[in-house]
Specification:
single chain, 273 residues, alpha+beta, Ribosomal Protein S5, domain 2, Alpha-Beta Plaits, six-stranded mixed beta sheet, 27% helix, globular
């Protein structure tokens, strides 16, 4: 079985409180982004799953990989054989694009289909929530207003298909833990659920990512990229998640070859929920 796990962007990200359990309460708009990791699931002999990753990847303990954890989570409650998980990693790591969360959630959906577990979307979301804050989003994979720790969603009407988007990914890895250490939780000054309904050209006056202040202080190149996107004509530009990817939304397709000096340029051509 072949799966195409897509990324996501955050449009606005408000860190509004830190909970006693160490998690943070946030408000954000999650929007699916057509940059894909390619995943193949195949049943194998033996008792343990295997993981093989090619492309943009930071090696680590495979047992800690979210895809393996997704498999183990389902195997703990369902009789399924071992699988080989082969992945071509194209969503950059440490970008704030949700690649790891997407991979795990698509593995859950893929295993459900491959072994005919007949799990509902609601059940899959519960499993995904045990893996990570962003993971449940990728089960439905439609634009949402996210609250809580990033697992409480309200669907919203948002379609960016008529616009053109570019993502700049410099050679910078911002860990989520690092970003949260620098952010200062505070009450939201703007109602994000209402602000997202404003004309897109007004977003830059009302919608911001709270991580930008501290992350830009540490990595000033990211601020430079955002400002350069506006100078190039972006109607809205922002860091996604906790970084380091910076995206710009344009009225029309824009030649950004000069931005190759900053890093990899992605041109997702279809943003349609």
């Amino acid at each position: 079985m072949i799966l195409f796990a897509n990324a996501k962007i955050n449009i606005g990200l408000q860190v509004v409180a830190k909970r006693a359990d160490g998690y943070h309460e946030l408000n954000s708009i999650f929007y699916p982004l057509p940059i894909y990791d390619v995943i193949e699931l195949m049943p194998i002999a033996g008792e343990e799953p295997t993981l093989n990753v090619q492309g943009s990847y930071i090696p680590g303990n495979s047992k800690d990989n979210l895809c393996i954890r997704a498999y183990e989570l389902l195997r703990s409650e369902h009789v399924i054989p071992a699988v080989a998980i082969d992945m071509i990693k194209q969503i950059p790591i440490g970008a704030g694009l949700g690649g790891g969360s997407a991979d795990a959630s698509f593995v859950l959906k893929g295993l459900n289909d491959l072994f005919q577990l007949n799990l509902t979307r609601a059940q899959l979301k519960k499993y995904a929530a045990q893996l990570g804050a962003d993971c449940p989003f990728f089960i439905e994979n439609t634009a949402v207003f996210a609250t809580g720790i990033g697992i409480d969603f309200k669907e919203i009407s948002l379609d960016l298909a008529e616009y053109h988007l570019a993502v700049i990914m410099p050679n910078i890895h911002v860990s989520t833990a690092e970003a949260y250490r620098g952010v200062k939780p505070k009450a939201a000054e703007v109602n994000l659920a209402e602000a997202i309904r404003l004309p897109i050209q007004e977003w830059k006056f009302h919608i911001r990512n709270d991580f930008e202040e501290s992350v830009f202080d540490t990595y000033p190149l990211l601020k430079e990229i955002k400002e350069a996107l506006y100078h190039k004509g972006a109607i809205y530009a922002s860091m996604s998640g906790s970084g380091a990817a910076i995206y710009g939304i344009f009225w029309e397709k824009t030649d950004l070859r000069e931005f190759s000096k900053y890093g990899q340029i992605y041109y997702p051509t279809v943003l349609d929920t």
